[in-house]
Input
Amino acid sequence: MTHLYLIRHGEAYSNIELDGNGRVPGLRGDKGLTPSGRAQAERLRDRLARTGEIRADALLASTLARARQTAEIIAPALGLPIIPDDDLHEMRAGDEVDGMSERELLERYTIPDYRETPYARIAPDGENWGEFILRVGTMLDRVTREYGDKTVVLVTHGGVIDASIMIFFQVHTLRVPPFALYTHNTSITEWELERRDGFHAHDDTAKAGLSRWRLVHYNDDHHIRDMPDDAEPSPHSAAEAMENGNS
Output
């Protein structure tokens, strides 16, 4: 059985820098984890080392600093090297605005309301809603095929985890769905690929028809529940709004 564990990064500077002080957190603008974010990731590392609840075959991580740093912290508990994967990135605003201050972003561009304009982009080289969901879905399909019947940990972003729910539940993905999700920092979301019993197919097409994804856990963040209240701020900066509100 294939298991995917999707872990959101710890609290990042892009989660807490408000009032126009933040920067678009792409490869250039991402300043990584806050001290609280590192503490959250250390809590997760200690939990995984203590419980041994995830016996993974591979550890993949987004190359954005906040996710990469989280993966570096938890990797010793899993005993695995980190495999960088750009397809685990959050929704991409575009190189043109990467690292731009929020004030400058709001002066020069309009952040789309993806519920109303799902095909809009912030910058010409950025992703629109459908392209983001397609990238995530293609990544999940690739990882599932490459690591069939194995256990994989993906250290990624809130938007990617939210997208996995839309994709595996087969929600209409060309528009933002009529519900909201808030995936917490360093939380664990577990999916398993179930294969139905009673029939044994020998070709890939038949096998695909006999499988279904099951959501085992969502937003499991028990390891940080007793941390101070300010360790899990609500994401509402302009830089995060353009990235599905999760970053």
User: Anything to note?
Assistant: The longest helix spans residues 129-146. Residues 136 and 160 are 6 Å apart (CA to CA).
